[in-house]
Specification:
Blueprint: E1 2-6, H1 11-22, E2 26-33, H2 46-60, E3 63-68, H3 70-86, H4 93-112, E4 117-119, E5 124-131, E6 134-141, H5 158-162, E7 164-165, H6 173-182, H7 204-209, E8 217-221, E9 227-231, E10 262-268, E11 273-278, E12 286-297, E13 308-312, E14 320-327, E15 331-341, E16 348-353, E17 356-363
Parallel strand pairs: 1-2, 1-4, 2-3, 4-7, 8-11
Antiparallel strand pairs: 5-6, 6-17, 8-9, 10-11, 12-15, 12-17, 13-14, 13-16, 14-15, 16-17
Helix pairs in contact: 1-2, 1-6, 3-4
Length: 364
């Protein structure tokens, strides 16, 4: 069976390719170049990453293909990323990057190369489930709960999952680094990549300013509606944000809580006003319900309502017990057992039944 592995130059995708080669697959590595605007600056490591991939492929003994998806990335991912920020929402580009580039453009290209399957270094698992002669593919959480990336993969469908292997799904990160070191792969201790998908970690506000003009407006208190500062654009702020607001405590009487930190709570796009509150646990930052749109259910069928699930309203939050109170083709309403902090329009909410990722949508 021929497998094309998406390789980034990191330890995860390198070990994914190594394991598949050891398991007897006919493996080809594929390096994707997806960003060209400032490829020569300090934040974009494409050149070094390609050198690392070539070295790993040489050690493993597999062929390497290089493909440029910069146009697809700009049209399908980055344009949407900018539109969302301009509308005052906070998107997650990694999720769109997976569904549009890694499991669409890359998958299509791999099939043209004659691949039976593609593979990536994601920490997730695929399980085949047979029922009445029909085979379904379930997206499962990884064994390593601290590295599980099923949240970022919730927009995949049955056709994509049926063609995908996740060789690291049953491993812990420490084991992956050990395997790489034992195999003589020099990337065994390479730092994990962070930042915007394929663009890298960089000063975010300065980066966004290149593409979206500043639009100054008032910062007001939600309690009392007083002007206490100015923002340079709602796109630079997200719900729950504490740092970067550039407002201090309000001086006054010695009242408990008057020097609590300020948090972004509401963005009024029409008035271009950012409303802030004091205190991490202010009621305005806690919500028990949300509405999600642009839904994707991995099985092809919507989950049942009034059933106990868990959901992640953002990647780093623990799974929160919830139920889906209403659902149709356009939207669903999710009620949580306990209030959730800083639910953010534009972010994704992902629903699970035990270890199975059911899918989710964009918080409206």
């Amino acid at each position: 069976m021929k497998v094309v592995v998406g390789m980034s130059g990191g330890v995860d995708s390198s070990v994914a390719a190594l394991l598949l080669k050891q398991q007897g697959y006919q493996v080809t590595g594929l390096f994707m170049k997806n960003w060209e605007d400032d490829d020569d600056d300090e934040y974009c490591s494409t050149r070094q990453d390609l050198v690392d991939v070539a070295s790993v492929c040489d050690v493993i003994g597999i062929d390497l293909e290089v493909v440029n998806f910069s146009k697809e990335y700009k049209d399908r991912v980055f344009a949407d990323f900018l539109r969302e920020y301009e509308a005052g929402r906070t998107p997650n580009p990694d999720i769109l990057c997976n569904s549009e580039i890694k499991f669409k453009a890359f998958l299509d290209h791999a099939i043209q190369l004659g691949a039976d399957k593609i593979a990536t270094g994601h920490y997730a698992q695929v399980r085949e489930w047979h029922n009445d002669g029909v085979t379904r593919h379930q997206l499962m959480k990884a064994e390593d709960g601290t590295k599980d990336q099923s949240y970022f993969l919730y927009r995949l469908n049955q056709a994509q999952l049926s063609k995908t292997l996740f060789p690291l799904g049953h491993l812990y990160k420490r084991e992956v680094r050990q395997i790489a070191e034992q195999a003589g792969l020099h990337v065994f201790d390479k730092k994990d990549s962070t930042g915007i998908c394929f663009i890298g970690e960089r000063p975010f506000r300065e980066f966004l300013m290149r593409y979206l003009p500043t639009k100054p407006g008032e910062i007001r208190t939600l309690d009392g509606d007083k002007v206490i500062g100015e923002h340079q654009g709602l796109m630079y702020h997200t719900i729950g944000q504490r740092k970067g607001l550039h407002i201090g405590g309000i001086k006054g009487n010695d009242v408990a809580g008057e020097h609590d930190a300020w948090y972004a709570a509401v963005k009024d796009v029409k008035k271009n006003v950012l409303y802030v509150v004091q205190g991490h646990d202010h009621p305005a930052l806690l919500k028990e319900r949300l509405q999600a749109i642009d839904l994707n259910w991995i099985s092809g069928d919507a989950p049942r309502t009034h059933w106990v699930y868990t959901a992640k309203p953002r990647y780093r939050t623990p799974d929160a017990p919830c139920e889906i109170e209403a659902i149709d083709a356009e939207r669903c309403e999710i009620a949580f057992a306990a209030p959730q902090w800083a639910l953010t329009p534009g972010q994704s909410v992902v629903v699970y039944e035990s270890r199975v990722c059911l899918g989710g949508g964009i918080i409206a």
